[in-house]
From TrEMBL:
It comes from the Bacteria. Keywords: Signal. Residues 1-18 form the signal peptide. This is DUF3299 domain-containing protein. The keyword Signal applies.
Length: 145
């Protein structure tokens, strides 16, 4: 299975013009958090500080592999997680840097916890407490399991 995954990722990367293959370690190391002051309108929201390496990827195409999660009953809010639902960061296994919001052009047909390789445009969020710190827009995904 791992060999097949490596082949798929290699083919995706070699066919890519300027895509960057991201790992969850890259995302974890590429962010730090700063608590807001009590005067801040979003007190309690920790502002993200991104490393130069991650900041340079803003607006660029990336590839990331993780578990597909659906977050609402209408099946319209999606994210990619480092861990499957039973052990995602909501359950205390990691922090908000272990999930990435996904924005697809068309409604995806993947099931919860499907292992996916996702390609799309990376967006970073420092200021909006209603969004993910990391987001992939124009997402295109391939099931790996």
């Amino acid at each position: 299975m791992r060999f097949c995954l490596l082949i798929v990722l290699f083919l995706m990367a070699t066919n890519a013009k300027t895509q960057t293959l991201l790992s969850w370690s890259d995302l974890s190391k590429g962010i730090s958090f700063q608590a807001q002051s009590t005067e801040d309108p979003f007190f309690g929201f920790t502002k993200a500080q991104f490393s130069q390496k991650i900041a340079e990827l803003e607006g660029k195409e990336v590839i990331l592999t993780g578990y597909f999660l659906v977050l609402d009953g209408n099946q319209s809010i999606y994210m990619l997680s480092k861990n499957p639902m039973a052990s995602c960061f909501f359950c205390g296994n990691g922090g908000p840097e272990t999930v990435v919001g996904l924005e697809f052009s068309d409604k995806p047909l993947f099931k919860m916890d499907a292992l996916l390789s996702v390609k799309g445009v990376l967006r970073l969020n420092q200021n909006d407490p209603n969004q993910y710190y990391y987001r992939i827009e124009k997402a295109d995904a391939m099931r790996l399991d």
